[in-house]
Amino acid sequence: MRRRTVSGGDLDQVLDDLAAAAPARREAAAEPAPSPSPRPEPGGLRTEFEFELPRGYVDDEGRVHRTGSMRLATARDELRPQIDLRVKENPAYLSVVLLSQVITRLGTITDVHAGVVERMYATDVAFLQDFYRRINSEGHTHAAVTCPLCHGSFEVDLSGERLGE
Q: Is the pLDDT higher at 154 or at 115?
């Protein structure tokens, strides 16, 4: 296998080239091409999750954006940060790049890029990292918690409600 170094912009081309070569490899292996999957029915696979930030993102005009949505990550989303030069220089930047790819909306902002995530409060970034892990690993946004006063156990949904309400 030949190794190649690519920049962030080149990843799309490399992945598109691999996708274009996949049908030829399938035909050579005499495997039938998979049929396209139907669109998920209501109640089917949930791919986008709403959230509410603990503090909120303050934009250049001073508006606070607290609600947003995050989609499930794809393999491409996980691979792209690995070749990003900013991540190579500072591995801690990986979460910034990854979150900027999967956040689809933040308040009225629909173009969420790394610069937006960089300007978020650390509390909100930590919340989003945990939220990302929950929806991509566990498939839900529920967390089991224990009340510090009565020691009762219950479940909360991290996506839409403020903790403690």
A: 115
